[in-house]
Amino acid sequence: MIDDPQARRAALLRAQAAMDGELDAANTLAFERDLTTDESLQGAQVSGEALRKTVRAHAARESAPEALRASVLALAKPQPASRWTLPLAPRGIGLAASFVAIAFIAGFFLGSRKGGSPDEAALRPLIDSFARAQIAGQPFDVASSDRHTVKPWLASRLTLGADVPDLADVGFPLAGGRVDIVDRSPVATLVYRRREHWIDVSELPLGGGASTTKVDDSMLNGFHMRRWRDSARAYVAISDIDAGELETFVEAFRRKSNPTNLPTER
Known about the structure:
7 strands, Phosphorylase Kinase, domain 1, alpha+beta
């Protein structure tokens, strides 16, 4: 038996971990290999097995209270589906998801009071995508402030090339871009930044986002949304910044993307 107390303790802990199944595959193989030659490991394993048998044979076993058993069985019963039930999530992510869910609920009532056009249902995937990006903290597939990086990246993945105006000089720097799915078709979504906020601008084929060149403002699921079109595309801008700042962004975007496509009077 080894005389070094630290070595004996290390051997005992390693043997206990092996008996409890806490070693990964590589360390389990190493333990079994060392067990054939290391007397300290052999002694630790014998001691551990003896202790385990003693505990099992003599330790008192207590039954769970009947009230606890009934509570567990009640939780195991299928619960009726509820549209307002939030799934459990890890702390932090769950908290962020709860705030977004609250915004969805509030936005539903606010949006319904403002009315809404029939094509809003088709645009809900863009709202959902924006909300997911806020939770994940990664709102783009390609991260770059250079339009000459984002534009070809999107062009290689879409049939409709994206227009990527540079708005850094007016306080809305480009952050990147991603591909979203609307009505089972891929569309380009540009991501701009305004301080700690994000602004998504999705570019869709005509007929997929707005029926007029006039900027249409609405609120859906608690987020501000602006829609308009030009001669080639329909645009949908979504953000959680205030309505005035989003209006400023849209005007700047329209001027930079097409100087003749100036905002119309509201």
